[in-house]
Amino acid sequence: KNQVEQSPQSLIILEGKNCTLQCNYTVSPFSNLRWYKQDTGRGPVSLTIMTFSENTKSNGRYTATLDADTKQSSLHITASQLSDSASYICVVSAANFGNEKLTFGTGTRLTIIP
Amino acid sequence: EAGVVQSPRYKIIEKKQPVAFWCNPISGHNTLYWYRQNLGQGPELLIRYENEEAVDDSQLPKDRFSAERLKGVDSTLKIQPAELGDSAVYLCASSPQGGANTEAFFGQGTRLTVV
After folding, report:
1. Integer Cα distance of A93 and B105 in angstroms
2. pLDDT, tens digit, for every residue of B54-90?
């Protein structure tokens, strides 16, 4: 069964500090891994999409890494801002003959405090 | 460019009543998804459309849930009759095509409360 596990479940950090969120997955056949940011009461918004051959991808202060061998990914947030408070969801895609199935993690709830 | 539009934003109904949600995807997006998200959980796929064809409805509880996407544009998701356990956020998403590595854009969701 395809699974995506995220840690920690929740995290509180001071504004300006860095943090790293973790994602482990067992999804086959692997197609890509995505990180989404979901503000309270809003739909998820894509931050990064990484395929098998990509080890790292950045989007502003967000940097995602992917180790396809160990089936792990991380999302690093640099110089956190209050607006970074949200849930961060790791999503792994399995694809067969062009048909894609997304498996969502339960998310990490990040709170930035001033 | 307008994003994925969903309505209503919130809905409170009594159990056993019917309810419907509406989604207008981004113009030109062929693929449309309906997801259900329970509190503190990630979204779970209910149904995926490629144009007007439902290509993956394996997770849709067909005894009470139905969906349609007439003309391959906007879509409605219906629950009849609703149960207490249906309380959740129902998210609609769309993408230009359903192939791998294609980004999906989500609407704000409809928060359903069944009392």
Report:
1. 15
2. 988 988 999 999 999 988 899 999 999 999 999 999 9
